[in-house]
Amino acid sequence: MSQFTLSIDCGGLFIKSCVLDESGTMHAAPTRVQTPYPLSPERFLETVESIAKSLPKAARVTVGLPGMIRNGVVVATPHYINDAGPHTRMNPELKEQWWGFDAEAAVAERLGMPAKVLNDAEVHGAGVVTGSGLEIVLTLGTGLGFSVFHGGKLSPHFELSHATTRRNTTYDTWIGDRERHRMGNTFWSRRVRLMVSELRPVFLWDRLYIGGGNSHSIQQRDLNLMGDDVVIVPNSAGVAGGVRAWQL
Q1: Edge-to-edge strand order for the sheet containing 153-154?
Q2: Which residues of 200-237 are buried (b: 16+ CB within 10 A; e: fewer)?
Q3: How far apart are CA 28 and CA 104, in angstroms?
Q4: CB 3.0–4.6 Å: which of 116, 120, 122, 178 could bond 147 by disulfide?
Q5: How far is it, in rounded angstroms, from Cα 177 to Cα 14?
Q6: Which residues are CB-neighbours of 222 under 8 A, at least 6 positions away?
């Protein structure tokens, strides 16, 4: 137990979790539950506690949350401030409860173990980066996740998803799951390739990793055109990064 880490990846639609040893090997079948809505911080803590009880006992916990997470505190988060999840009405009371919520301290107190709460794309990146050069991680799911690593160290987080790309449309909307369903995978995949080509001169990365549930919808032709420095990584990295996140 002393070597086990409970890793929880919180998405807009599902919350995935598993228990890992120090090498990143899973010690129970990974679980996935629907994200419950409306989701107050208290209901979130109840869900996390329920997940922890259903899995082998761990010594620490890593949680990846969507949005701007700074020192374990939720500066801002999407989805969870809405009545019924992504693309539904924003609830001002939920926004007030979530924004400024010290999730790291609350999770640690509820589970009685050390906790680390990061942006979900940062935990995802922890599971795939090599520690060499400038490495960028994009996650494609309900919206767009983003994290930066330099020399294997996590850089300060910023929300690329909120940057405007076209006609007052943010990347989060332009590349999100709703647009993928509207356009179909072929045209959406071309849009991902276009985004990568536009971001390349901004970051001049050594390696770009693309993960998240929708990364498998990128067409092989578009992936080939993106270049050898772009790699598709498994969505399981979102929980597998729970161990390495403690070393960043």
Answers
A1: 153-154, 144-150, 134-140, 207-211, 230-232
A2: beeeebebbbbbbbbbebbbeebbeebeeebebbebbb
A3: 24
A4: 122
A5: 14
A6: 189, 190, 192, 193
d(CA 136, CA 127): 13
Residue 124's nearest CA partner among 110, 107, 112, 141 is 141
Give me the phi and psi of 121, to 5 degrees please. Answer: -70, -25
Q: What is the rounded CA–CA span in Å between residue 100 and residue 87?
A: 22
pTM of the predicted model as reported, rounded to 2 decimal places: 0.92
Give the DSSP letter of residue 205. -
CA distance 144 to 173: 8
Integer Cα distance of 220 and 143 in angstroms: 21
Pair 32, 10: CB distance under 8 Å: no
Q: At which residue do the structure tokens 């598709």 appear?
A: 232
Joined together, the tokens standing for residue 224 give 């080939």
